[in-house]
Amino acid sequence: MKRNAVAGRRFGSWGAFVAHLDQWNREIADVRVHGTTGELPLVRFADEAGVLRPLGGRAPFGQLRDLIRKVRPDCAIDLDTNSYSVPWRLVGETVQVVVLAGRVIVRHAGEVIADHPMCEGRRQRVMDRAHLAGLVGTGLVRAAASPTIPPPALLRPLSEYEEVVGGGW
């Protein structure tokens, strides 16, 4: 097609372009021997048409959108005018957003950090309150036990340090 159907041609409108492609398919592409199959595409399609089945409303290809977004200060990313929450610790970070099968899946460093149903409308906010856990003022602050930190271990005995500085205190 690049060498035959459109090469060196200009079209006054999209409709003129589509009409030219339809004519080119009918009169040239469908009636010449295909380089790979060795058959006329028109004949091959007629042979295969009997075994083709309807897709039942499904798209003929995987509908996947793979995007990059920056987490806003309100702990969310924007997608198609809608807002989807992510864990608050990622504010300011760049995340991967995959839209697939009616889901909005957000990944950071290769891990799924949020999974929301896709909004059908516009200007909506989808919030998972667990994404705010630990944030002051949300009422979701967890009372965490203070971690026990073992005292640091000396790598050398104190006597070696005393020798370097010239004696004890």
Write up what this structure looks like:
The radius of gyration is 32 Å and the shape is elongated. The model has no long low-confidence stretch (mean pLDDT 86). Helix content is 18%, strand content 22%. The protein is built from three helices and seven strands, in the order ααβββββββα. It has a four-stranded antiparallel beta sheet with strand order 1-4-5-6, with no helix packed on it. Strands 2-3-7 form a three-stranded mixed beta sheet, with no helix packed on it. Among the domains are: 14-51, no CATH class; 64-132, no CATH class. The chain has helices at 14-27, 41-48, 158-165; strands spanning 64-70, 76-79, 82-85, 94-100, 103-108, 111-117, 125-126. By secondary structure, it is an alpha+beta fold.
Would you tell me the overall average pLDDT? Answer: 86
Q: How large is the share of residues in beta strands?
A: 15-25%
Provide the helix percentage: 10-25%
Global Rg: 32 Å
Span between N and C termini? 89 Å
Oligomer: single chain
- State the order of secondary-structure elements, H for helix, E for strand: HHEEEEEEEH
The low-confidence runs, each spanning 5 or more residues with pLDDT under 50, are none
Bulk shape = elongated
The main pleated sheet reads as: 4 strands, antiparallel
Strand arrangement, major sheet: 1-4-5-6
Number of strands: 7
Contiguous helical run count: 3
Question: Which structural class should the secondary elements be placed in?
Answer: alpha+beta
Features:
169 residues; alpha+beta; 7 strands; 18% helix; 4-stranded antiparallel beta sheet; 3 helices; 3-stranded mixed beta sheet; single chain; 22% strand
